[in-house]
Amino acid sequence: MVEVEIRLADFAITVAVDAERAPISSRYFLQDVDTGLLDGSSLFRIVTSSIEVVQMGLCERDPGIAPTIEHETTRKTGLRHLQGTVSLARFAPGAVYHSFFVCMRDEPALDQGGARHPDGLGFAAFGRVVAGLQDLQRLFAAYERFGGKEYLQTPIELRSVRRV
Q1: Residue 43: what pLDDT?
Q2: What's the whole-model pTM score?
Q3: What is the distance in angstroms between the CA of the first residue and the CA of the last residue of the chain?
Q4: How many other CB atoms are found less than 10 A from the CB of residue 142?
């Protein structure tokens, strides 16, 4: 497993990237890490409704972006959206946009066959938080402090995103 540290102003989280079980999604994420694309991006979304996730990276709201990679379903990788799972954000299968999210609780609706996405293919899980989840949970719990809106009015900067 490759580990990546995501450093925010007040804390850092470490993600173990499972390149063996999710090679395509992992390669996509690690390319963003290695090129520095995620440095200076942000934690920009806290979802507390039907799912509980924290989203980071680049914020894209245009659902018309084209697929760029093969979609790795949870059925294919064997990974599941459990608390601490890290997954690629997407609009359509493979239509990813340099953004990822962390599950704040178990989220079976995000797995293949789940109801979160209309196509039923779920999201491409590729890793898990192995350090700093408690700090992320404190931030998640302070959601109301950010105005109670899903997209943060003032996103939180990701100061650096680096392999450990």
Answers
A1: 97
A2: 0.96
A3: 11
A4: 10
Query: What tokens were used for 105?
Result: 């609780």
> What is the predicted pLDDT for the residue at 148?
74
pLDDT at residue number 146: 67
The domains of the chain, with CATH numbers, are 2-163 (2.40.100.10)
The DSSP line for 104-154 is: SS--GGGSTT-SSSTTS---EEEEEEEE-HHHHHHHHHTGGGGTS-SEEEE
CA gap 130, 83 in Å, rounded? 11
Residues of the chain with pLDDT under 70: 144-146
AA identity, residue 146 = F
Residue at 29: amino acid letter: F
The closest alpha carbon to 109, from 95, 122, 92, belongs to 122
What pLDDT, on the 0 to 100 scale, is given for residue 143? 76
